[in-house]
Amino acid sequence: MFFRRYAGRRFYTGKYFGTDGFRGEAGVTITAEHAYKVGRVLGWYFGLRDGRKCRAVIGKDTRLSSYMLEYALACGLTSSGGDAYIMHVTTTPSVSYVTRCEGFDCGIMVSASHNPFYDNGIKLLNAQGEKMDDNVISVVESYLDGDFTPFGGEDVPFARGRDIGRTVDFVAGRNRYIGHLISLATCSYKGLRVGLDGANGSAFNIARSVFDALGAKTYCIGVDPDGTNVNDNVGSTHIEALKNLVVENSLDIGFAFDGDADRCIAVDGNGNVISGDEEMYISANYLKSRGELAHSKIVCTVLSNGGLVKSLSSRGIDCEICAVGDKCVCDTMTKTGAVLGGERSGHVVFSKYETTGDGLVTAIMIMEAMVENGGFDGLLKGYKSFPQVALSVPVVDKVKAMDGVLSLSERLTHDLDVRIIVRPSGTERVVRVMAEGESEESCALACKILSSKIEANCLIK
User: Fold this and answer.
1) Mean pLDDT to the nearest integer, 302-318
2) Looking at residue 312, what is its pLDDT?
3) Which one of 46-50, 150-154, 447-451 scores highest in mean pLDDT?
4) What local confidence, expressed as pLDDT, does residue 150 receive?
5) What's the pLDDT tens digit per position in 396-444?
6) Confidence at residue 345, expressed as pLDDT on a 0 to 100 scale
């Protein structure tokens, strides 16, 4: 295969915060009390600790529990003297953008991304709009566990009098972000028929606003959130809905987002799914044609198809391989100077415009390449993927589920001549299994054997 060995640092994961924030079932794993305490300690850490006022911006997705967590976070922040700027329903990338551009101390997004509605989460961003620094996450975790006592056993102090914080309606921040997206386009999309799947999530209104403003004729699904239908048979993890929309209406292209719109999966006019790998292939060639692909290099993860690496190599573009997770992607991009990186899931980062993945920016970049090319046909010329099979095995105990699995995967790699990745999810109670090789049958067999082993481990008491 065409993957080089990668060397990446391990990112902080603890009792509460995993690879993509604090996530779990709302009211059970993640509660209003947790959110209040997160707000309390952040308000102190970025403000009261230094005798000043913390400024934090909060966004949320459309889940029923997002209101509960949003208000609890604001309560915690203001009680510690911080000002909480409320963006209401908006995307994770918009919170990142506004945090960075408006000089906030931190950004907070209430979302469980692609998870079902009954889950929710808290994502923390630093002043640059990037995933929060490990040392701050460590402080937050210690406070949640009651182990953080910088005042000789006393709690974080409450602000008093004029020092008490306030909440600020900040829908203007969301509007500024929409303007930013519109400004990225270099041409009109008039005459193009575009399908948009908002996943009944954060992008349900923003995506249509942007593409309408750019002149496209939009056809939308997943734009009727009711608090319980986010990602429900729509969005980037349920792509069939968008495929049907595109084919039935003879559209030029379609884009599906996830719950907080940091991912995008596309569908071409023939109903073919365009994954994050294909999106990176298109974007890398587009940026290189414009002289904007620094070092002729991109970053992708070990889960990207080996065909992406080989296909780009034939066009003089190198792929730097990193561990799974957008934080790993961004870290590797910074280290290597790459301006494009991402994951097969559709989480793609264009560092010229954002410091995190943004599904809407990805959609705009694909549209730009499409307009310049005179249509979608030909954008994937030269791209060939290897057979790849992936599945997720539900588990209760991730550690127990992995017993003996890695050694088994090594044997299967040798016996079946496939590349295998097995890893516990950082966001869900599943173990993800992926096999790639010259034979799809060998890939399917490897995944079947490994999933059976994982399931058997879960039955052992």
Assistant:
1) 95
2) 97
3) 447-451
4) 66
5) 899 999 999 999 999 999 999 999 999 998 778 899 999 999 999 999 9
6) 93
Say how far apart CA 196 and CA 189 lie, in whole Å: 14
The structure tokens listed for 178 are 């929409």
Active-site annotation, residues: 113
Contact 84, 398 (CB under 8 A): no
| CA separation for the pair 27, 375 (Å, rounded) | 47
Beta bridge partners, 254, equal 195, 267
The pLDDT of residue 461: 54
Could you tell me the maximum CA-CA distance found in the chain, to the nearest angstrom? 70
Give the pLDDT confidence score for residue 249 in this predicted structure: 98
Residue with tokens 């009211």: 27
Strands (E), 111-269: 119-125, 167-169, 193-197, 217-221, 253-257, 264-268
Pair 132, 124: CB distance under 8 Å? yes
Asked if 346 contacts 263 with a C-beta cutoff of 8 angstroms, the reply is yes
17 and 11 Cβ atoms separated by less than 8 Å:
no
Q: What are phi and psi of 200, to 5 degrees?
A: 55, 35
Go through the chain and tell me how many residues it has.
461
Closest CA to 301 of 343, 259, 269: 343
Task: Determine the Cα–Cα distance for residues 371 and 373; give it in Å rounded to an integer.
Answer: 5
Whole-Å CA distances, 79 to 31, 39, 73, 149: 18, 9, 10, 18
